[in-house]
Amino acid sequence: MQQRPKRYLGIRSEDRRPIQPREYGLLVAMGLALAILVARLWYLQVLHGEELAARAELVRTRLMRIAPPRGMIVDRAGRTLATNRTQIVISVLPDLLRRQPQRIPLVASRLNLAPEELHQLVMNPRINPYVPLVVQKGVSYQQAVELLESQYNLPEVEVSLQTMRWYPEGKVFAHVVGYVGQISDEELKAYRGETETASAADTSLITLHARYDGTDFVGKNGLERQYERYLHGIPGGEQVEVTPVGRRVRTLQQIEPTPGAKLVLTLDARLQRRAYELLQGHVGALVALDPRTGEVLACVSQPSFDPNLFVPRIPATVWRALLNDPRAPLNNRAIQSAYAPGSTIKPFFALAGLETGVLTTRTALTCPGGYQLGRRFFRCWRRHGFVDFYDSIAHSCDTFYYITGQKLGPERLAHWARAFGLGAATGIDLPHERKGLVPDPDWKRAVYKQPWFGGETLNYGIGQGYLLVTPLQMAVATMGIANRGVLYRPHLVRQIIAPNGEVLYTAQPEVIHRVRASQAHWDAVIAGMVQVVERGTARRAKLNGITVAGKTGSAEFRKGGKTHAWFIAFAPAENPRVALCVMAEEAGHGGEVAVPIATEWLKTFFGQTPENFISYEKAQARRAPPESAPLAARIRRVEAIAPHRRGHAPAGDAPR
User: Of these residues, 343, 392, 396, 554, which one is catalytic?
Assistant: First the structure.
């Protein structure tokens, strides 16, 4: 019987052959590849599944930061000085332009921007590239429609409605309110650092990264900068769905931002506008204070600028024009420019003379038109003849104060100037205040390596030479005379109110200097300043039914040029409600330039303008305290003692 061959899986045993080494290698490679695939799937699905799922979600959705609306700024009557206004704005998407930088010139040409400027904006490392970056504001409806029609060809450009900072008063409040601009690297670090420090003590405070971002607008000057932490607010956010190229599809979730707090100022918009109008055509400043509290009623610097130009960013050509303007419109002359005060310093040195015994109210001399010191003759602005204490202030006799300054000496002159706050910052709530200069022999020796000369003391006595003051300092010093030695810190913010109506801050009067002097000496100096207006160099400052005390000044600036025109005043003299300083650079004599400006402003303040006349008696009845009568009687008594010389300056003589 024939035996059949055995078969394994249909293969005859004699047909089987051993597996070759190459085949073993192929099987191992296939097994290894399968193992790697399984390991990778485990890594993606199990080990890092949640993390990768979240990252995949971020590709589809993004968290967008919503900048908070800045707080409003209003005057003491609630008139809006800074607010946020909805405008048509054009934005670009930095992320898209960074990925396709070759499209920057095309986009820039459609938006009328320089390609270099647009490139700098979108490549800024501080900004969030996924947040639309505003490049133009206040776009016309027609321009917006044209861009929307070409949206398909310009996916990097967005047209939308946004709230932007707006200053309805424009130039009138520019130096006080300030302006906003995009945050710089230094500011971002500083504000984040402040928030970090605060967060260490208060864990409930929003963290620094939530408060500030590289695209934020922050205060650059004025009150916008000084009160940035109140005005900024707390940002919100939203979760949005986007396309693979970053285009926004819909909003999934939104948290509304919290607006900043509202600043209520001490300024009166009506008085501020009037000061701005009166200073038109001049380079100078006007500062008015309430001597009872230190509140700033008006603060104007001319020339000015439009703060709306800085939002969202000022064009380079406009910025260069402002910087190169020889009149320096960006400079706040009320606090940042220091000048020789001229004859406005004389009432302060008159008080110093009375207090030190160098002068009495019966001191008198004959003015021959100047004073001889060594080989030099120091001229007076006119030949006054017989001059007593009151005439020296009323007619601004330089000879009288040459001699007074010489008797007092530079050390005592410096002491009394500093007593009224000169030579030091007033501490007003504005940035970049200049402190001026009150010189003395030690200062000159340290700075110039020279001794003090006698002629410099004579110039010191009439407000010339090294002595430098700001208009604000002179207004504060004038407040000191009006208050008989009490000087309050000037301030611009009356209240800060949170969005929910909570009052976060209320200003209180703060005494910064007290000048000790006898009542009789205060009476004498104030009586002299009243006579400046009644019969002296400021006769144009007379007001119906109101006693004005003042002092003119004409400070020499450059040889052969016009003098700086000064006028300080307070009124009513018996119960002051306002202290005022007017200064006009190289405008002429104080009595001819500064006095008319101050007079018209005071008429507005007391309601004596033709279109808004309010009797002084009615105003007095609203607020006159009982102590005003004795003070008025003292002034009248001193004026009765003083000989009233009614002689007028000859034709051609200019009042000092």
Answer: 343
